[in-house]
Amino acid sequence: MPVPRSRQFTYILRVWREDADTPWRAAVQSAATGDRTYFAALEDVCRFLHTLTGATPAVPTASTHDDTSFHV
Q1: Which single residue of 15, 28, 49, 61 could bond 11 by disulfide (Cβ 3.0 to 4.6 Å)?
Q2: Which residues pair with 37 in a beta bridge?
């Protein structure tokens, strides 16, 4: 199915993990359709967004950030 190219998408993002020893999981729900997509890894959410928007993924760079910080 072709991915629509739009200027705006609205999704609800849910991120969770069962306990401290399990990986983070995620789900996105389309506000327009209610359809949900589940992801086994956070990297998969980024891949989904890149595919949805047609954006080129950023090249990872060496970083010393920890998992508790958020950068925009």
Answers
A1: 28
A2: 28
SS3 of residue 71 by DSSP: coil
* Number of Cβ within a 10 Å radius of residue 45: 20
What are the extents of the domains in the chain?
A: 11-53
Estimate the share of the chain in helix, then strand, then coil, as percent rounded to the nearest 5: 15, 20, 60
d(CA 63, CA 41): 20
Residue 54 CA to residue 33 CA, distance in Å, equals: 20
| Torsion angle, alpha carbons of 63, 15, 38, 62, to 10 | 0
| Structure-token pair, residue 68 | 């508790």
* Order of all β-strands in the sheet with 25-30: 11-16, 25-30, 36-39
